[in-house]
Design goal:
Strand content: under 5%
Number of strands: 0
Low-confidence stretches: none
Mean pLDDT: 81
Number of helices: 12
Structural class: mainly alpha
Radius of gyration: 39 Å
């Protein structure tokens, strides 16, 4: 038996099907069922009233095809966070914090919204900016901050697009990697030898024990060298 939430999701899909029939023309019952199950899972932690409002907002656009999940989420973000600070407005708050940022940098940092804190990085950064000349802060620092704030917003938007179960999986993997990195590393031991290698090593050791140690080399004298040469030449002539 279908739950109330399943029925609600099914009604949202039916709404899109009636508005964008060309997007569903090649979709049989099996694919339609899979689409409903996917939407139910993707919006499991969202208020379906907000999803419905996002769909209605999308339907007012000139788009000719049914929206994707990503497009619906963009509309949901627009509806739920209409007053999200722009880059210029965010820098205005940081610039104001820098005026009292040399001695009161910790307090000023605490007053900033979380996304601005993330773009700034750390409280001490406000103190460093406060010690710079106003021209540098108003040009170079402002430009770098707004670029960082733009990246921070984009990353937060992308993270919001990741399904909850995927975020949990990524968090679990990250924790395991951190635990592994924190453990002391053991030095690798000598490589294990197979049976044939061990046998050959033993044979070499036995032969080394049986062979007499090599005699030290003694440089022959000139007379000995002449005698050895003449003996070698004689053997050569006899051959």
């Amino acid at each position: 038996m279908e739950t109330d939430r399943q029925l609600s999701v099914k009604m949202l899909i039916t709404l899109l099907q009636s508005e964008y029939p060309n997007s569903f023309v090649n979709m049989d019952e099996r694919l339609l069922k899979l689409k409903i199950e996917l939407w139910e899972k993707e919006f499991a932690n969202d208020d379906l009233n907000v999803v419905y409002a996002a769909i209605r907002t999308y339907m007012r656009s000139p788009e000719r095809f049914a929206p994707t999940i990503g497009q619906i989420r963009e509309k949901m973000d627009m509806l739920t966070e209409p007053d999200k600070l722009s880059e210029v407005a965010a820098w205005a708050l940081v610039s104001k914090a820098c005026r009292n940022g040399y001695y009161g940098y910790k307090e000023e940092f605490a007053k900033l919204p979380p996304e601005i804190q993330q773009a700034v990085g750390r409280p001490e950064q406000l103190r460093e900016w406060a010690a710079m000349d106003a021209e540098t802060v108003g040009s170079v620092v402002a430009s770098n901050f707004m670029r960082s704030y733009r990246t921070t917003k984009q990353r937060a938007k992308e993270m919001a697009m990741i399904p909850g179960e995927v975020r949990q999986m990524l968090s679990s993997i990250t924790q395991k990697l951190e635990l592994k990195a924190a453990q002391p590393r053991e030095l690798p031991g000598p490589p294990e030898e197979d049976e044939s290698t061990r046998r050959r090593t033993a044979e070499i050791q036995v032969l080394a024990d049986l062979m007499p140690p090599p005699e030290p080399y003694i440089q022959p004298t000139d007379e000995e060298w002449i005698r050895m040469r003449d003996a070698a030449l004689q053997r050569l002539d006899e051959a």
